[in-house]
Specification:
The structure is a homotetramer of 480-residue chains. Chain A is 31% helix and 25% strand. The first copy, chain A, contains 19 helices and 24 strands. In chain A, helix 10 packs across helix 11. Chains A and B meet through helix 2, helix 3, helix 8, helix 10 and helix 11 of A and helix 2, helix 3, helix 8, helix 10 and helix 11 of B.
Chain lengths: 480, 480, 480, 480
């Protein structure tokens, strides 16, 4: 089992629409609002009266469709789209979704967000039975399972296939006569359903896409659910009853856009509550609050309001950082860093700063920002994190697969504080996080997956079991 | 006198460095932090022991130098750079700066931020004497004046030329043996001097560039001053004594980066004070404060702190909006608008919102945002603007050249409120603005140019005099 | 059975090398000399000690590898490459070869020139057994057949797969430990083997690639043969004994480069002999010979020498025609045509011209060139064609699939002469063609496939049988 | 005086049209047929009722106008265009023509083919009087001279300016109300006038452009002539009477397209006569004639017909060579060479070959081709050149500026033969060349400039005089 394969199957965004004459263009608008979920590649597949058409490529959505002809040709009244997360592994257009499967008797498209935990086993078994995979992505597996099912009808085939894949997944499939959305039994990844004024049905990883296209939210897809959309409307079904909500808490903490709602909770508002709770858990004296732009601004707002400290713009992120091809020499490395983020000495000089960030992974970024603030004259820098310490890998769709990358897996809070050079370090408590998010549910952990914080995974790990065991033993440090 | 010519000479950013082995790369980093001042084109010109080399093109800095070889070839220990503002007029690489002038006996480079008010007269006179201009920019005029001066030495020629051009200008010139910076007699445009640890001297439109490259601010260039930098250090001289500080107040309100300091005043801090003052002048009941991202966030912070109202993220700006080539159809226009900015219904629903913006030009953007907020469920939208009403054109370097484009030139505050659909509309007072900025100076208006608010220009308008008169009479409305 | 699928599987070029440290670069040089065989896309796949690496894209080879890094990364001592023919059908990078198949237990690459006549049946059957195809190309079928074979060893699997596919094919497969080349039982497509001075073995569609890389020709691959190249050298085997040479005569007439040798016959020399024979069959008076550049120049040389008439440059092809994006308006259509080819009035004025071309398909080009010559002043234009009349479709790898496209399928020679506006029209006789080429063989038709001329196909047509029958009946004309 | 400046002003193509609604598109077609005269850059400037519009850029014409919008925007009924020769010097869009000069009282465009011999003196003098040049090209000088003339009317100014510039030049100027073409007093460069059926007048470097757009040739511009085209038709005038035809013989030998006529002589026909004459001057036994493609094919035809030897395709030029970005390693250098040109062993093996080329400059190419032929098995290679030995530089528009680059300046014919490895070497005699071309004129040397062959320049050399003297003395060899 190689790491290369696994690191390719991570965080992404999916969108689908059924029943609108501008299906592909609306998918473009929807995907645009999901661009933060993946920047490596993008694609749209449309269905024009049974003819499936697709355009996909590496790059941002606007680059992929730089030539408007590539969007114009995607005619039809239904479409699905995908934005793909950039990983270190093999970058190839073969892995860009939606995938398109053509047969002599049918055809369909597929978009997938998540990570399967039994992909290796399934692939190996399928290959031994003659299957050929055209990508190194695990998203293709479902199509093989559907085609090889002996169930006599299509819905039966799909349900059988869904019951065989394990892990985290939100799928959107586009057939000639219907669109199908499905979620894993724990609902690890978000997926919402909306409706447009003309009756068109839309499905999206996040509700922010609904605001953009003027759709109204209906409800979120439930764990283990399968949603069938066709010209007769929406039909809800399920492929399993063994379900329990455990949505990824990192969606609220970091991934999702602040204007999205997930399971009835607005993300910005949840983050403000995390900030307020963090302020209550924070035990130090300080003068000002400074959020690390852009992801921590909501947390900083909540912290400032609760603590009564002024919220200041002590760190500036350059908005033109997306694509710089100039590699600074060793001597100019520091300048390269400051191109993206700079501390405002006029704001922080002589101040005791509470530096708010959403999370700490390796700690290198935090260390750098603390240093920027101190060089700009901050007298003290107290780091307060809007989430608990990340100490365990994720196997359901986030790109953290080993404990070696995680500073909190290898160091105590005090060690971490010293490494990043802060005057204090405060993490939000797990309970504080759960209370702040506050999904209405009876599921354990408030319906959240918090396994990266406590190592308690809601499902068996299948092919990753061995990796995980080894990971726990190795516990080596990368700061020496 | 055509408008085409004038609209080409607007807001830009300039940077220069003398005495560093990585001069061009540091200029790249410096310009990168000035990118907000101009996105149409960019260029860098370096001086390698008397050999001037240049690369310039249309597009963002990172696009212009997408091929690193174009930066690597700019060897030498001094350099100047320029980022150019995008205007509706003729877009051509001929107008991208720095300009490079080569003669059989010498050569020099030139970068210019500002707008000359006697450009037409000077051009006409020079052409009648045989001059040929290679651009439609007014920035080229200074070079002709320098070359045609009968003064026997170079500094004399430059001073003579500077005394002939009128209006707003910050120039950086690069000669084989020196770098020269010069500011107009009113200091309309900002220009600061800094020093690096190795002794290299840097000049920049804004001090944020100094943070990026690790330079220390020395002081701002004074009105009417000419600064000569060579291997012997910095020398301050002046070409006129008839000076009076009147720096563009829009630099504090909108243009400059929050982390820059201008004439000793931090821009973010000034904006917070404007927000606090605006809160004091605001006379309505409300529940939450929502700043229009990104330029109004500091003002919103100040308003929220002073008013005690919570500061909320009720509007989300998509960070991936820079380059969309897809033109929405008429039917999809609204979706196109929401791609860039969307209102967060989870935040604003049922709330009386104070919507904070930095300024109103035509009013179309404000009208759209008010509508977004109301559609997202805001019960009331009170628009509060961090600056006075823009009612008069600018001739010193901002791209507002006719009153017809300005809603406040043609409508009362109450009419404007109705047009934009707000429940109330509050502008910051001129005195409130001046007090909030608070430059230490004895100059009138606190050292600020506020002519766009009161029509009282600090200088004669020269070639624009007639345009301005006609503009006052026409006073037609574009909202009918 | 749709036409879309068939039109994607046409004329291409393949190249392979085993045992050279610069394998990918030499493949680049080799493919460059095969570029005339396909301009839609290109790709190279290398083998670095068992690790297969690939780069492929739409466009000319030089465009696909515009960024040299894409070639540099293809390390290893063996490689295969492919250039793909441009067709009207679906253009997608998915169809660009070499294909790369990765499994948990092995991996291999595949490049294919030719067209399978039982592709539809095989695809349908494989899909019913669960196979998923990732391209719309028939080249992928062989990989599925190999993987599904129950033969216990790899060579057995490959032989079994080769015996199942029908039609015209030259395959090159690259495995971790060997390179395999195979030809169909009729040898419809050319494939030659060569050796470099360092012992490296090369395989190529045409021998012109050997000249370019300094390799020496060993021999051509025989019908039904399978060639295995590994570190122990070359091994010749076969998967069938039911073979009979029927190489595509259009390779000699049009496709192949003049400097290539096929089955021991130099193409330029064969064409000169066709020209000489054509001169003997030609029955008219004329003053000068003018070849249509570039493909007919050899034929024109042979005609001129045999006839004693001067060979003149009466038609000029612009060498800069590859990529013009300007679409002439209806009014300017004629100018657009002349951009590519123009007649030299100084040469043809008042002359009785023998216009030599290699073949006539629709007749539209011939009609246009006759008109150009007459407008330039030619008193008579006698069209002499270096091949017999094309009257039947090809199913073995040439992009002529219906009789409707062929003027000679629907019109007599005299009708064709009138349509193209010539004073006379002479086709080379089939016997004349066979004698001119002169392969040393006992096979019928001198070892050539001449089915497009006489409708006598050397194999059953399988999936195309029905199409062909229908085609014979329809016999409609497109000139009315 | 630096060489950098001189090497920028070389061989180019110009085109102009007055009086056609599709002026810019026809200019595109015309320039396309002149692309062989320059591939570094291209531009078109149109005149839409007094508004001059332009697009220009680096690259081939089809690349410069890859986006059709750039051509569509060039509206108007008159236009001029330019294709620029690629030189080693500074490549910059600033040097791409047509130049566009805008003044407050007028504007005009300028396209120039040729080289001025007093450019340095004129530039220096103009700069001392305040002029600023925007390019490093000498083509800009004429505009400065026109603007500074004290002559009261425009035609007077233009004539005065034309009388001040020396050397070789063909100018096309486009004013709001007229198009002006002018030729130097020796007519060094070709320039022809044509007419379209709608009455539009066209001017072009070569008549091949007339064929492409369907225009009829009227006559060639005469030395010292100035042609004025406006809505009243064509008017012929002159700015000097001191004229004598000395058209560049290299136009017939190498530069011009075979289908062009210059001063009444068809270029292909002239080359055939050169070949026939060369055959008469050739004194060796041989079996076949092989022309170096593409420029020597006409000469080879003439040689073969006169000698009775068969004309064979013994060398093949790959038609896909224009843009290869792959740099072969030192080991693969030979393969890189063969990518462009390869010898056909099937044709030349065992034969005594007459290798025909148009000219020899450094001799490196000839040496390489001789080697290719011998490696392909030619028993003897006799090199026969369709022009006399190039031994002196050109200062009128060809990029040969020093004797050091010319093998014939430093070596006898026998030495050259040994260096290139040929069995014999035959140059065409100067008298043979003059007779073969055969312009109807009383001018010396048959109206041709043959100074590169005999060193006898038809004009003073002005700024180049000193360079030339030094060049004669140095006479160093680059083959040692």
């Amino acid at each position: 089992m190689t790491y290369e394969v696994k690191s390719l199957n991570e965080e992404c965004g999916v969108f689908g629409i059924w029943g609108h004459p501008d299906a592909a263009k609306l998918t473009y608008f929807g995907l645009h609002s999901l661009q933060h979920r993946g920047q490596e590649g993008a694609g749209i597949l449309s269905n024009d009266q049974g003819q499936l058409k697709r355009h996909r490529d590496m790059g941002l959505l606007s680059e992929v469709f730089r030539n408007p002809a590539n969007l114009d040709k995607l005619t039809g009244t239904s479409a699905i789209g995908h934005v793909r997360y950039a990983t270190a592994g093999e970058a190839s257009v073969d892995n860009i979704q939606p995938f398109l499967f053509r047969f002599h008797d049918m055809q369909f498209g597929l978009a997938h967000n998540g990570n399967l935990t039994n992909a290796e086993s399934l692939k190996k078994e399928l290959e031994q039975r003659g299957a050929i995979f055209s990508s190194t992505s695990d998203s293709e597996i479902l199509a093989h399972l559907i085609r090889r099912s002996h169930n006599p009808n299509l819905m039966g085939k799909i349900k059988e296939a869904l019951s065989l894949v394990k892990g985290g997944f939100a799928y959107i499939l586009l057939f000639e006569d219907k669109l199908i959305a499905a979620l894993d039994p724990n609902g690890f990844r978000p997926l919402s359903i909306g409706k447009m004024t003309n009756g068109a049905v839309v499905v999206s990883s996040e509700t922010c896409a609904f605001e953009v296209i003027g759709a109204e939210w209906i409800r979120d897809v439930k764990p283990g659910e399968i949603v069938i959309v066709d010209d007769n409307g929406i039909q809800y079904d399920s492929y399993t009853n063994d379900t329990q909500l455990a949505i990824c808490s990192m969606e609220y903490i970091y991934f999702a856009r602040p204007d999205s709602n997930i399971h009835g909770v607005n993300v910005h508002t949840a983050r403000k509550r995390m900030g307020a709770q963090l302020a209550r858990e924070f035990k130090h004296e300080a003068d000002i609050v400074v959020g690390v732009p852009n992801s921590s601004l909501s947390v900083a707002m909540g912290f400032a309001e609760e603590s009564g400290l002024p919220n200041e713009m002590g760190l500036i992120k350059n908005q033109y950082t997306q694509r710089t091809f100039i590699q600074p020499t060793q001597e100019l490395r520091e300048q390269g860093v400051r191109m993206k983020l700079s501390a405002v000495s006029g704001v922080v000089k002589g101040k005791r700063v509470v530096m708010i960030d959403d999370s700490i992974v390796r700690g290198t970024t935090s260390r750098r920002i603390v240093q920027l603030l101190k060089e700009a004259g901050a007298s003290e820098v107290h780091v307060a994190i809007g989430s608990p310490a990340l100490a365990y890998p994720c196997f359901y769709g986030i790109d953290i697969q080993t404990r070696q990358e995680l500073i909190a897996a290898n160091h105590t809070v005090e060690e971490t504080r010293q490494i990043i050079g802060a005057d204090s370090l405060t993490y939000l408590s797990i309970d504080g996080l759960i209370d702040s998010i506050g999904i209405e549910t009876d599921a354990p952990n408030g319906g959240l997956c918090v396994a990266y914080f406590d190592g308690d995974y809601p499902t068996p790990l299948y092919d990753y079991e061995e990796d995980y065991r080894r990971s726990l033993e190795e516990k080596t440090s990368f700061y020496k």
